[in-house]
Design a protein that fits this description.
Elements lengths: L9 H9 L7 H11 L4 E4 L6 H19 L8 E4 L3 H14 L7 E4 L5 H10 L3 E4 L1 H9 L10 E4 L2 H6 L3 H9 L6 E6 L4 H10 L4 E4 L2 H4 L4 E7 L5 H11 L5 E4 L3 H13 L4 E4 L5 H12 L5 E4 L1 H4 L9 E4 L6 H8 L9 E7 L4 H11 L4 E2 L19 H5 L16
Parallel strand pairs: 1-6, 1-7, 2-4, 2-5, 3-4, 5-6, 8-13, 8-14, 9-11, 9-12, 10-11, 12-13
Helix pairs in contact: 2-3, 3-4, 15-16
């Protein structure tokens, strides 16, 4: 299938061709026709699968049809709620890219920036509004947002909305909109509270699930290093000096961990920048832009701060701390190996993280290759002696040093 088979306007196809997008991803192929047919949709898929285009393209198509039929002031006809500022910016960039040859106008509003410029843009009128929940509510209270003409409501990264405590804000925002509208919900996972929210917001939705086997690119190599927690920084430096080249994203679990690793790498003369929730929006925007422009070659981030950022040509990902949610692992490694390029993901596992490997491999439905030959291996724990059994079975045992009989101990 090609984009030209999806009933899209010539102006949209021109923009897609210009950006060398000819073939839709699996999620785009499944979702776009449903949205064009005015269906409510629930999509379960990881970031990096092409979700943004799966709702942006049909929304632009529908608004173009209305724009040709009606002339007048611009009113908000599509609202996309995003949990993070970076994702809101990325979604807006996508709408501007795909709508380049149209007269549609989009804007993103989010916290951490002055209200005044965002109010000015809204007063002039927009067709498509992308917003973080908190900033939307602030602007709505000031009377510059009117959802009376809303046709499409999109809730992106719904599970992250839940994690960040935005669900009540989402319900409040939805109450400002007309009852009759099309609603699209996208989420990496569907926990119980998101399922309850979906039942409240959507009408007879079509459900699309893109499994992890479709979301992890074959172009991504995956390597697992068992390493003591105290030696993770040493292993990271070793790989950066001897193995990894190009642009690298390193994921850490906490803000403190991000800052600590950044300082260590800066002291070792690496060009590093970082992202986490305590940084101002101006600093976060600069960090992403510096990484895109190769002014820095290493970006260290927490999952929340990095979610939704689309950076091309990332050569490697390092999971400095393994995620306890397996879907997060898929999301992280999907930052590399994009657009047909090859990439590699290095994962560090300390003794307290071994259970995470099992759940990740179950989700992937395949094992991750283990690298044992490195300077900081995790010592194999001594087996506990079982009374009345060791001596009984000792006779005739093959040597535990035999490569043939060597087992994974984790």
């Amino acid at each position: 299938m090609k984009f030209s088979d999806l009933r899209l306007n010539k102006s949209i196809l021109k923009a897609l061709t210009e950006n060398k997008h000819h073939t839709p991803t699996l999620v785009q192929e499944k979702v776009i026709p449903l949205v064009l047919n005015k269906k409510d949709v629930i999509v379960t898929a990881q970031t990096g699968t092409g979700k943004t285009a799966s709702f942006a393209l049909p929304i632009i198509e529908e608004l173009l049809e209305e724009q040709n039929a009606e002339k007048g002031e611009k009113t908000i006809k599509s609202l996309i709620l995003s949990p993070t500022r970076e994702l809101a910016i990325q979604i807006d960039e996508s709408f501007k890219t795909y709508g380049k040859y149209t007269n549609l106008r989009s804007t993103a509003v989010y916290g951490g920036m002055s209200l005044a410029p965002q109010k000015d843009v809204l007063k002039k009128g927009v067709d498509i509004l992308i917003a973080t929940p908190g900033r939307f509510i602030d602007l709505h209270k000031q009377g510059v947002i009117d959802l009376s003409f809303l046709k499409t409501f999109v809730l992106d990264e719904a599970d992250l909305m839940l994690d960040m405590g935005f669900i009540n804000d989402v319900k409040q925002i939805e109450s400002f909109s007309p009852k009759k509208k099309q609603t699209l919900l996208f989420s990496a996972t569907i926990p119980q509270k998101i399922d309850e929210l979906a039942k409240r917001l959507l009408y007879k939705p079509e459900k699309i699930t893109i499994s992890p086997s479709h979301t992890t690119s074959k172009n991504i190599g995956q390597l697992l290093y068992y390493v003591p927690k105290k030696n993770k920084t040493d292993l990271c430096l070793h790989l950066l000096r001897n193995t990894i080249n190009g642009k690298v994203i390193i994921f850490r679990r906490t803000k403190i961990g991000v800052d600590k690793l950044e300082q260590t790498l800066l002291k070792n003369n690496y060009k590093v920048t970082s992202l986490h929730g305590d940084k101002t929006q101006v600093i976060r925007n600069k960090a992403v832009q510096d990484f895109k422009d190769k002014k820095s070659t290493i970006l260290i981030a927490t999952d929340v701060a990095a979610r939704g950022i689309d950076i091309s040509k990332v050569d490697a990902v390092i999971n400095f701390d393994l995620p306890n949610v397996p879907e997060t692992y898929v999301h992280r490694i999907g930052r590399t190996g994009r657009a047909g390029k090859s990439g590699i993901a290095f994962s560090f596992c300390s003794a307290d993280e071994t259970s995470y490997v099992k759940t990740i491999e179950e989700l992937l439905q395949k094992p991750i290759a283990i690298i044992e030959d490195h300077p900081f291996p995790l010592s194999k724990p001594k087996p506990k002696k079982q009374p009345n059994t060791i001596s009984k079975h000792k006779k005739g045992r093959k040597s535990s040093n035999s490569k043939k009989n060597k087992k994974r101990w984790y």
